Amino acid sequence: MSARIAHIASNTFREAVRDRVLYNLIVFALLMSGAAILVGQISIDIERLVVINLGLTAVSLFGLVIAIFIGIGLVSKEIEKRTLYTVLSRPVRRWEFIVGKFFGLAGTLAVNTFFMAIGVFVSLLYVSHHFQKQDGWVLVALYFIVLQFLIITALTLFFSSFSSPLLSAVFAFSLFVIGSFAEDLRGFAAMSQGVTRWLATGAAYLVPNFSALNVISSVAHANPVPGQLILYNSAYALVYAAMALCGAVLVFERRNLK
Amino acid sequence: MAAIEILALEKTYSVGFWRKKPRQALRPLNLTVQEGEIFGFLGPNGAGKTTTLKLLMGLIFPTSGSARILGMEIDDPRMKAQIGFLPEQPYFYDYLTARELLVYFGQLSGVDPKQRSRKVNEVLQRVGLPDAGGVQLRKFSKGMLQRVGIAQAILHDPKVVFFDEPMSGLDPMGRREVRDLMERLKHEGKTVFFSTHILSDAEALCDRVAIINKGELQGVGAVADLTSSVHGKVELVWQGPAVPSSLRALGADCHVTGETVRAIISESDQDAAIEALRRERLRLISVTPVRTSLEDYYLQILQPAAATSGARA
Fold first, then answer.
1. Are A85 and B110 an interchain contact pair (Cβ–Cβ within 8 Å)?
2. Buried/exposed A170-186: b ≥16 CB within 10 Å, e otherwise
3. Residues A224, A209: Cα–Cα separation, whole Å
4. How do residues B19-44 score in pLDDT, each as one tens digit?
5. Which of B44, B54, B72, B264 is deepest in the core (most CB within 10 A)?
6. Side-chain-facing half-sphere of B186: CA atoms under 13 Å
C-alpha cells in the first residue's frame, strides 16, 4: 500500500473522529445498558439470546448508517467544497484517493465496531454473570458484520463516484435491504421459469449476499459457525468489495471535476 | 527551456439535460511559458482562465490537444511533485489546523519527514501566519485561508507555481505581500503562472501576459512591448502659475492643478517646449513618454469582442 493511501486513510479517519461520528458510541452504550438492565428483569433463561440479538443488530444498524451517510460524502463533498483540487494537483493518483478514502472509512467502522463489541460483551457479562465457550461465536458474527461494512462502504463509494449524495444513499440502502434477502431471491429464482428465472438468478447473484453474512440469530442460539462459511464469506466479501471499489475507480478516473 | 507548453488544448462541455448541446469553454489554446517567468493569464470572468488551469492540473480532461509542464505530460505524478497550485477561492479541510493541513499536504507531496516540520514553520512565516499554525481552519478569515492556500502551494519547494486569482480576498497590505512573495519566487528561479483580472497586479509583476476571452486567446506578449505604444507623445510637468503662450502655440493639451501644470505634446515638439519653459524660467519637473497602459491594451483587445457580442444580442 502506498504511503499516500495511508495518509489519505488516516486523514479520513481523523475527519470522522473530529466530526464526532464516534459519538454514536454514547447512544449505543446507553442502549446496551438499558437493554441489559431491562432484560435482566423481565427475561427468564433467554437473557443471553436477547442481549446478543439486540446488541449485534444494533452494531450492524449503527455501522450501516455511518457507512452510508459518511460514504456518500467521501467523494461528493470533496468535489463540492473543492478540497479535492489541492489533493489531486499533487502526485496523488485518483485511484489512490478512492482507495485511501475506502480504508479511512473502513478503519473508522472497525474502530467503532470494536468499542461496540466491548459494549455487547459487557452487557452479556452483566446478564449471564460469566462467559460461556459459545460466546466466542459472537466474535465471528461481529467479523461478518465488519465484512458487510466493507461491502457497503465500497458500494457507497461506487455510487457516489457518479451520482448525487441522496441517490447514492438510496441505492446503497436499497442494495442492503435486497442483499439481506439474497437467499430468498435465490430461492425464488430456483422456483421460477423462463425469462423470470434468468432475471431473478442474475439479480440474486449481482446483489451482495448479506443474508449469508448475517449469523446473528444463529450465534444467539449458541450454534457454531462452520469454518468453511468463515472462509467463503471472507473471500466473497473481499472480492465483492474489491470489485465495487474497482468500479468506483473506473468511474472516478474519467470524471471531470467541475 | 519551456516550463509550460500548451499545444492546441481544447475543452468542450455538453450542456443541457435532454438534448445536450456542446459549449466550447476553451478553443484550441497554444501557449508557451519560459522557465523563471512570471506569466499573467488575464481575462474577464468566465473567459476560460480557470478551465485552463484545471486542465493543466488534471482536474478535468481536454477534448483535444495536450500540455507539458517541465517537459512532462500533465498526468505524470513526477511532474506533479514539482508544481504547486492555489485554486480560486480555496477551501480546505476545516477540521484541521493550518499546521495539520500543511503536514498532510507535505506527506502527499513526498516532503522528507525529517524536514517537514521545519518547512511547515518556514512557509507559515513566509505567508504571514507564524502564530496561526495551531488554529483550526474553520476559524480563519477569507484572507487567512488565501494565505494558507499560498503556503500549501509553495510548501514542497515546487519549480512551477500556478495561482488562480491569488489576490482575491486580500486587503491592500495582503496583496502587496503576495506580490512581494511572487517576486521572491521569481528570484529563486521559479516559474509563476497566475490568472487574474486585476490588471495593476499583472502590470506590476508580469514578464509576459496572455489575454483570453470567451475561451479564445486574444493576445500574448511581454508587458513592456504591449505597453510601449508611445503614440508619439510626451508628458511635461512643471511648476508655475500659468501656461506660456508659446506652449499653447505648439498645441499642448494642458491641465493646471494648483501650481503644477501637466501638458501633453507631440514628441517632435518636445525640445521646443522645454526651451520655451526655460525662457519663461519655469521649473521643469519631468518629461515622460506617454505609454499605453496594460488596461488600455486589455480594453482595446476585449472591446471588439464586446461590440460583436452586443451586436449579436
1. no
2. ebbbebbebbbbbeebb
3. 20
4. 788 889 999 999 999 999 999 999 98
5. B54
6. 17
Dihedral, CA atoms, A39, A44, A48, A50, nearest 10 degrees? -50
Angle, CA A82 vertex, CA A76 and CA A88 arms, to 5°: 90
- What is the CB neighbour count within 10 angstroms for residue B242? 11
3-class DSSP state of A225: coil
pTM of the shown model: 0.86
Cβ proximity of B146 and B90 under 8 Å: yes
- For residue B2, how far is the Cα from the chain centroid? 19
End-to-end CA gap in chain B: 44
For residue A144, give the C-alpha cell.
461478518
- B92 vs B294, residue with greater confidence: B92
Could you tell me which chain B residue has the CA closest to the CA of A19? B95
8 Å CB contact of B81 and A91: yes
A15 and A7 in contact (C-beta within 8 Å)? no
pLDDT in tens, A39-80: 767 777 788 888 899 899 999 999 999 999 999 988 988 988
Q: Which of helix, strand or coil describes residue B59?
A: coil
57-96 of A, contacting B, C-beta below 8 A: 81-93
Is the model more confident about B1 or about B136?
B136
Give CA–CA dist A176/A209, Å, rounded: 9
- Beta pairing partners, B67: B6
Angle among Cα B189, B205, B296 to the nearest 5 degrees reads 145
Residue A120: other Cβ atoms inside 10 A: 25
Q: How confident is residue A1, by pLDDT bands cut at 50, 70 and 90?
A: low
Contacts of B242 (CB under 8 A, 6+ apart): B256, B261
Q: Is the dihedral of CA B208, B76, A13, A10 positive or negative?
A: negative
Instruction: Name which of A75, A85, A94 to mutate to probe chain B: the one with the most chain B Cβ atoms within 10 A of its Cβ.
Output: A85
Residues near B148 by beta carbon (within 8 Å), at least 6 away in sequence = B90, B92, B98, B101, B102, B127, B129, B137, B140
User: CB–CB of A7 and B108 under 8 A?
Assistant: yes
Amino acid at B302: L
pLDDT tens digit sequence for A158-188: 999 888 899 999 999 999 999 999 888 888 8
Q: Among B83, B91, B109, whose Cβ lies nearest the Cβ of A83?
A: B91
- For β-strands B260-266 and B253-257, DSSP reports them as antiparallel
CA–CA gap between residue B53 and residue B28 (Å, rounded): 14
